[in-house]
Design goal:
Blueprint (H helix, E strand, L loop, with lengths): L20 E3 L11 H5 L5 E7 L10 H20 L3 E7 L2 H11 L4 E5 L6 H11 L3 E5 L8 H12 L8 H12 L3 E2 L2 E2 L30 H13 L15 H19 L19 H6 L4 H14 L5 H25 L2 H4 L12 H4 L5 H13 L4 H15 L3 H11 L5 H12 L15 H7 L20 H12 L1 H4 L6 H13 L1 H17 L4
Parallel strand pairs: 1-4, 2-3, 4-5
Antiparallel strand pairs: 6-7
Helix pairs in contact: 2-7, 3-4, 6-11, 8-10, 8-11, 10-11, 11-17, 14-15, 15-17, 15-19, 16-17, 19-22
Length: 527
């Protein structure tokens, strides 16, 4: 197995030979081979705190809370079986948990990897200080690159304060630095990015490869029942099927590489109403908990491409780009741009999130289907997130912060450091720190890339009048109301030419009327 460490940048050097220097394993750091736990001698004391207060602050998806708490308890049991002395404190708040721990072990210094969430390190220091304990924070090794490495890249011309960060340039830099899918200093296949080959629509008779679903053991079932009783959750309480142990997470990685990776590339951006998984990896929940290191995923994908004839380059490159490029990129941009990024709203969007994001009660098949997928499993793939759910909210004029809260609560793989750049910036064009234009579209995109429009109550080919797809009128209305901000964008020139044509033909008045009708329909629960 590949050693799980950041491969771009140098982690902190430290040791835990002193038995009073104790690993504190957070609930998203559940990997035995990284950070303080990897450096602690076998049989060492380990601190784990299962705090429940955060789970009461939002209507989190039942599967998300089940995943977090079941994974923590499994990890606790595995460490104990391996001979570690695990102080596992179940409590309402981290402060109470830390007070309990240091009451038992007042001479210890807890050593923890930094959480990527904004100010979490400062907050943990404050809590430890408040209870009279000691805390040392070290490099989070559950990424492929360190913040210092990103700073060096960004400050050397890749981006910086007040500038736009470029994912494509960062991704190429990561490929060069890591050597992944490289040959003699050049990208394998002669191109860095095969995104153009990731936009095919599967034929009607295409069958998605099977999904790996681990068996739910007694502990996980117990946690699922406890979560349902203890917290005010959203989403289905049935059908939980996410890996909660490293063994199952590695099996899920192996399954993706063996069964799903060959089909991933061409249909990466396609959507089908009856298949939320398509050929996607479904690994983000496990990776974001630390059960699988992203470098383990990258090397498994690269090895499969190099050793198997059935893995096309566009599949391997597309999957590598998700783990080595995008995930790393948003983590670092988040760190450098917070707290401003979470509050960004350059388009001044201020409407509340429509109720149908919570209920799924809408005749828009793409929205109802995507919300239904999230309700059932806490998951939909990235095009549903960006080009359906974020697209509709942005066209509607939803406050990016409220949309961010919804994504954070409802997805099993969502954490603030993940959702904020993806939702506020990429989905809502809230800041412009890396998005070069709003990622919005009319019904044309959804009709081209999915089968949602077949049998939908709304006509994707009509913009106005009864039965016209709401996305069409909302799209033109969005462009018109944000014209002062967007017309000067060189990537928007063509569409604003169409806005001008519609104004000259009097069509925009009909658009405004249709949008007014849609907002009334939403208020009356008829959309």
């Amino acid at each position: 197995m590949t050693q799980p460490r950041p491969v771009v940048g140098t982690p902190d050097e430290y040791d835990l030979d002193d038995p009073t220097r104790v690993p504190w394993v957070l609930g998203t750091h559940l990997h035995p081979g990284v950070g303080p736990l990897d450096r602690a001698p076998e049989g060492s004391r380990v601190c784990m705190i299962e705090a429940h207060g955060f789970a009461r602050r939002k209507p989190y998806h039942h599967h998300k809370l089940t995943l977090v708490f079941a994974a923590m308890r499994h990890f606790r049991d595995e460490l104990r079986e391996a001979g570690y002395e695990v102080e596992y404190v179940r409590t309402e708040t981290f402060r109470e948990g830390l007070a309990t721990y240091f009451d038992r072990h007042p001479d210890d210094t807890l050593v923890a990897m930094r959480s990527p969430s904004h100010r979490s390190g400062d907050r943990f220091r404050e809590l430890v200080d408040a209870v009279g304990g000691d805390l040392e924070l070290v490099t989070n090794e559950l990424f492929c690159s360190t913040p210092e490495a990103f700073d060096e890249w960004a400050d050397g011309g890749g981006g910086g304060e007040g500038d736009q960060y470029r994912h494509e340039e960062f991704y190429r830099w990561m490929r060069r630095e890591s050597g992944v899918l490289m040959a003699d200093g050049e990208p394998v296949g002669g191109e860095w990015n095969f995104d153009e080959d990731n936009r095919e629509v599967p034929p009607d008779d295409w069958e998605a490869p099977p999904v790996y679903e681990p068996e739910r053991d007694a502990l996980t079932a117990e946690v699922a029942e406890w979560v349902a009783d203890e917290f005010d959750t959203w989403g289905s309480t049935e059908g939980f099927a996410w890996p909660v142990t490293r063994e199952d997470a590695l099996a899920a990685l192996d399954h993706f590489v063996a069964e799903r990776l060959p089909e991933f590339g061409p249909y990466q951006d396609a959507m089908r109403a009856d298949d939320p998984a398509m050929a996607h990896a479904l690994l983000s929940p496990a990776v974001n908990l630390g059960l699988v290191h992203p470098w383990e995923a990258v090397t498994a994908i690269e090895d499969a491409y190099e050793s198997r004839a059935d893995v096309p380059l566009n599949s391997a490159e597309g999957a590598v780009r998700q783990f080595l490029g995008w995930r790393e990129f948003v983590r670092h941009v988040y760190e450098r741009t917070m707290p401003a990024l979470a509050e960004a709203n350059r388009l001044g969007a201020d409407r509340p999130l429509p109720d149908f994001y919570w209920t799924g009660d809408t005749d828009m098949a793409c929205v109802a289907g995507s919300v239904g997928d999230v309700y059932e499993r806490g998951y939909s793939h990235h095009i549903q997130r960006l080009m359906v759910l974020a697209n509709v909210a942005t066209l509607w004029g939803v406050d990016p912060a409220e949309l961010n809260e919804w994504f954070h609560a409802t997805y099993v793989d969502a954490y603030h450091w993940v959702t904020t750049p993806n939702v506020v910036e990429m989905g809502s064009y809230g800041s412009g720190v890396f998005a070069t234009k709003p990622y919005v579209s009319s019904a044309n995109y959804v009709d081209r890339m999915s089968d949602y429009c077949e049998g939908c109550a709304y006509d994707p080919d009509r913009t106005t009048g009864k039965g016209a797809c709401p996305l069409n009128a909302l799209y033109w209305d969005f462009l018109a109301r944000n014209e002062d901000e967007l017309r000067s964008n060189h990537r928007m020139g063509l569409v604003y030419g169409h806005v001008d044509d519609k104004r000259e033909d009097g069509e925009m008045d009909e658009v405004y009327q249709r949008v007014s009708e849609l907002r009334t329909m939403d208020e009356e629960g008829d959309l």
